[in-house]
Each structure stands twice: as C-alpha cells, then as structure tokens.
Design the sequence.
C-alpha cells in the first residue's frame, strides 16, 4: 500500500527558479559546462529517457536523440513552464510526482538523468533505488551531485572557517534540505542500488565570481572541459557528474510496456482517460491537468 513515510521534499511549487537562478543570472558557464558533461556521458540516442527533477526543462533539449522523454518533477508550476517552451508533443510526458514514490513503471526506460536534484534528497539511496527500478538492465544513468570534498571547503576547513569536515563521509546539510555529498558516499550508494559507475567528471572548478567576470564564458567552458577529466582520478570540484550503468536484472520486455505504475500499490494496470488515471488494483485515482500527469496525491 501507499508508503506515506517518505522523506521531506524541497518544494519548488511557484518558485521563480528559471528567472531568479538561470536566465540573465550569470550562470552561462555552469549551464554550458553541464551540457558538455552530458554529451560526454549520455548515449546520444535511445528509446525512453527519464529526467528526474527536470524543473522547467532547462536541459531537456540535450535529449533530442531519444524517442520519448519523461520529465518528472514535484513542481507542477515548473513542469507547466517546461511544457510551455517544449510543447505538447507526445514525445514528452510531463509527470508531477515525488521521486521517493515514483509512478514510473519498472524497467521502462533505457536512460535517466538527475542533475542538480540529489542535493535536495535527505535519503539519497532511497531516491536512487527508485531511479534504478525505472531502468532496464544496461541503461545509462547520469547523476550529478554537489561535492562536499571540494577545494573551497577543504581550504575553509583548514583555516577553521567551517566546522564540518569535507573528508567525513556523512552528507552535510548546509541549508535545510540542501546537501553536499562525499564522492565515496555517492559511490557506495550507487553500488548498493545496483549501478556500475563507469566515469566521473569534475565540473565547475572555475565557479568564482571574479573569474566569471573577467574571462569570456567560452574560455571558461573550454578550460572546464579539460579539467572535467580529472574527476576520473579524484574530484575536488563543487559539482561531479557520474556515468552509471544499471546492473542486475529487470522485468523482460518492459521497454515496450506501459510507462506508469500506481505509486501507491505499484500496479501497472492503470486505466488512463482524458483527465484522470484510475488504478484498477487499489482504485486510487490521479488527475491529468493541462497535459501534466499528477501523481502527487490521489484525488478523492
Ligand atoms: C535545482 S532544481 C534542478 C532542475 C533541473 N534539473 C536543472 O538542472 O535545471 C531541483 C529540482 O528538483 C525537484 N525536486 C526536488 N525534490 C523532488 C522530489 N522529491 N521529487 C521530484 N522532484 C523533486 C524540484 O522541484 C526542482 O525542480
């Protein structure tokens, strides 16, 4: 039955994330470096990609080689913004859901990404488990995480300007529901959830206001593209991208099967109508509003 005991959510409903954090906010270097990393780590083509915490769809145009893209996010307002600029094509499925209670059918995707999202997860392994369940064996999963063992944190710790140790494996919650992770913590969590990590890239070493002001963005991105490879040996950058392959087994033929399962009872026997989804097993119903499949809370 429904798992109501899930961790707290960092809620972006009605947040001005796009305009307050990205558009015109001097983050072209970060945006472009992340695109470089995605192109290096994600197979360029595939059947169905799950974008976990897609937000307003900032990076979704990187997945044009996929037949279908599922944008999953807890915020319906950000998904509405994504739909406004990506459009209503059947290639996109806009899904409002909590990743801890994922409505994505087991094994139905051959790729997934989770960029700038796990830093909001109080229980990162539980979230990774849900992503792994949605993937077919052999699928690629690109995970970005905020690295607590970064140069700035190491220096601050050395100078006693920071009380938490960047070397300690436990995630640090520096602001409520914002976590930095040790690379080894993430490596163990990925291994425990049946992912084989193949590559790691170190991003955003140059995320320094002064550098961003005096060096043209294209140079910063070019230097970052070279520095990224150092992550394979040891990442000390604030952001790390990992390429992971789903190991173990999964349900046969699921890539051709249904996209959704009921987040409460996990049945894929769903009756999908124009404006609602009804689970034939537990009888929960979910609403489809303005092109967004809303699995957050069953309707009465
Ligand atoms: C910092 S934004 C990143 C958005 C996008 N990946 C990007 O890089 O532009 C984090 C996103 O994660 C989503 N999120 C946070 N907790 C979530 C959860 N439990 N389930 C689904 N989405 C979640 C938020 O709604 C938000 O859109």
Sequence:
């Amino acid at each position: 039955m429904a798992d109501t005991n899930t961790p707290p959510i960092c809620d972006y409903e009605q947040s001005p994330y796009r305009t307050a954090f990205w558009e015109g906010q001097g983050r072209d270097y970060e945006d472009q470096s992340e695109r470089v990393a995605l192109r290096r780590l994600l197979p360029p083509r595939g059947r169905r990609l799950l974008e976990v915490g897609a937000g307003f769809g900032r990076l979704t145009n990187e997945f044009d080689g996929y037949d279908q893209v599922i944008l999953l996010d807890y915020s319906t307002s950000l998904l509405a913004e994504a739909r406004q600029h990506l459009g209503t094509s059947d290639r996109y499925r806009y899904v409002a859901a909590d990743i801890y209670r994922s409505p994505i059918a087991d094994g139905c995707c051959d790729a997934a990404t989770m960029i700038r999202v796990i830093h909001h997860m109080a229980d990162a392994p539980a979230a990774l488990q849900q992503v792994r369940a949605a993937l077919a064996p052999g699928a690629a999963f690109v995970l970005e995480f905020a690295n607590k063992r970064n140069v700035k944190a190491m220096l601050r710790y050395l100078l006693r300007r920071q009380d938490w140790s960047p070397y300690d494996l436990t995630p640090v919650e520096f602001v409520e529901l914002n976590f930095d992770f040790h690379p080894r913590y993430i490596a163990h969590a990925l291994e425990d959830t049946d992912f084989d990590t193949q590559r790691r890239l170190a991003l955003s070493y140059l995320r320094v206001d002064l550098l961003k002001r005096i060096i043209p963005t294209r140079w910063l991105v070019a230097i970052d593209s070279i520095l990224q490879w150092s992550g394979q040996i040891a990442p000390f950058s604030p952001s790390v991208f990992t390429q992971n392959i789903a190991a173990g087994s999964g349900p046969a033929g699921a890539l051709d099967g249904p996209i959704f399962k009921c987040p409460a009872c996990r049945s894929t026997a769903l009756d999908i109508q124009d404006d609602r989804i009804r689970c034939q097993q537990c009888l929960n119903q979910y609403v489809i509003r303005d092109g967004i499949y809303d699995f957050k809370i069953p309707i009465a």
